[in-house]
Amino acid sequence: MSININQNHLPVYLTEEYERQQELFSVQPAIIQRFLEAQGKQIAGAIIEGDSQIRFNLPDRVVSTLENVDRPALVTIPQYQRNHSAGHFINRFTKIELYKELRNTFNSLDQSPDRAVSVAAGLLRHSTVIHMVYNMLPAGRGVIYRPANKEETIASIPASDQMNIQSALTAASDAIIEENGTGAEVAKALVPFVPYARAFYLPQWVAFGEKGELLVKSLEEADAHIRSMQRFMEVLFKAVALAPYISTDPEYSKKRYGMLGQLVNQGRALAIYQTQDIITQIKKRAKTGSLNRGLSLSLPYFDDQDLRINESNIEVIPAGRIMFVPAFVIRAVRQEAMKVSQDTRFNPSTRKHLMYLLNLLENAFESES
After folding, report:
1. Hey, how many other C-beta atoms are within 10 angstroms of the C-beta on 67?
2. Which of the four, 239, 253, 259, 328, has the lowest number of CB atoms within 10 Å?
3. In angstroms, rounded to a whole number, what is the distance separating the alpha carbons of residues 102 and 242?
4. Residue 119 has what pLDDT?
């Protein structure tokens, strides 16, 4: 039997399921709520830490509706139906992720003929994703992004009017004071980050400025910030994979919007910075004559579908005794640009980003050819 869900009705369906689970949780006794929260925290931790298996328990009773009973009642769940597990130790070798196994387990429990078991499983799934969204991820600022251009589907450029937002993330002892205005209308704000960084959801993970300059101490630190943002998005992804209706939760929406735009912005900035470093290194090595035995490039670019840095491999000069001239770079870049323009694996925004990087390479050597 197949079930076809009209995509136009999907958001309504998800909202209704989210509200149903919220209401079910709210009518549970406080002790049951705390039990579900503790189990949800344990499960969420196992998912994010990459454990291969997890054992969990359903509560001993839940408030549930019963057949031929008008009002919900507190129903006991027998001991033999409370203990469950998902995953297997062998998964650490097969690379099967725990959240997929857990999703299958929850789906099976949802179909239980015992109404109390089905309700308890749904509540535990709900508690798990709520913990992932609300407790495993830092809260950030209210932000507004705009698309970089008309082809963009992800808004990633901070709105200009956010540059003066006051930061409440630190105390006076670890912040500087910025003043806006003059005379009696001077406004002072504690600002531990540059104005551009404060326009993002989590300023502490902003590694590149508006002009592409490095704001942190090293490229390694910038890489660490990118990884932190990727992990943030991974938690949200796994929460939705486990319970799609969590996508209608306002906190989920706020965190996804805020971090997605920031990650795309900073990921592209990292790729541009690394490309400029590649250009510098090529020119430096060309002056010393150390490129006359071949040259291949691994050009980094940020893929906004995978949300990670990928590489485009370009052979500039085949291995051998061929003297380097800038025209070789230009020719190789143009050939790669032709491939990229026809590669259907790229979405329009990633393709445009990669073409921009290739253009940087070409322009850097065109004046020298």
Report:
1. 5
2. 253
3. 8
4. 96
Residue 235 pLDDT exceeds 70: yes
Distances (CA, A) of 149 to 133, 146, 156, 163, 270: 30, 9, 10, 20, 19
Residue with the bigger pLDDT between 148 and 263: it is 263
Supply 25's token pair: 């949780």
Residues present in the chain in total: 369
Mean local confidence (pLDDT), 222-231: 97
pLDDT of residue 70: 64
What residues form DSSP beta bridges with 83?
57
Q: Which residue has the tokens 């509560």?
A: 59
Q: Residues 103, 6, 344, 223: is their CA dihedral positive or negative? A: negative
- Identity of residue 154: I
Gap between the Cα atoms of 201 and 257, Å rounded:
9
CA distances from 315 to 208, 251, 352 (A): 29, 46, 21
Using CA atoms, how far apart are residues 132 and 136, in angstroms rounded to an integer?
5
Closest residue by Cα to residue 118 from 30, 58, 174: 58
pLDDT tens-digit readout, 3-57: 444 444 558 999 999 999 999 999 999 999 999 999 999 999 999 998 889 999 9
Taking only the tens place, the pLDDT of each residue in 114-168 is: 999 999 999 999 999 999 999 999 999 999 999 988 878 899 999 876 655 444 4
